[in-house]
Amino acid sequence: CSNYKKDEEGCKFSNSLDDQELNNLLTDGEKDIGIHPDSKKKVKIKKGRYGLYLETENIDGKLKRSAIPKNLDVNELNIEKATDLLKLPRTIGKHPETGNSIIAAIGPFGPYIKHEVKPNPVYVNLKEDDVLYIGLNRALELIIQKEKLNKGIEIGDIPKTNNKILLKKGKFGYYFEILTNKDKTERVSIPRKTSIDDITLNSALEIINAKKKTKKKKKI
Description:
four-stranded antiparallel sheet, 3 domains, 4 helices, disordered N terminus
């Protein structure tokens, strides 16, 4: 998928087998795992730039490929599971407000869902949900959460100044955006170990104040 955006935490999708294990698994760079029930063509495991992937031919002879999720043990990959993976991307359903499709797929950097809204589609990386079985309700929940983060979730106001604190997610992780009275914004990055679900106004203020103290020390 050429439009897929890499997760800011880096690629978590390449297969974890070491070189020796790959050599044992793949003979001449590939391994046959069975015959596709529809096309009656061989389904093979191959190694590519981003890890292991499946390859077969459609009924019309065109190649069809699908990446293999990192959490799937390729030694136990059977033809049934491979067939399901080769069906991707799949349409989960329609967004009730926009009427646009919500797609589940696997890109170079992992499984994801996409709300096909123009001009900027909404992508959500799937970390716990299974790309093959995630349903419409769960997909909508994740998309709504991502859209809120894109716009900013209001945490509260800074005492004395009453400047609003918004929680947002950017290319390099979560951060606070502070809206000043002069229509200017200030960004404060959130430590990666912080649980976003547990953030309150008090914890946000602690992070913001700690960052300010660090900046003052650097200036001295």
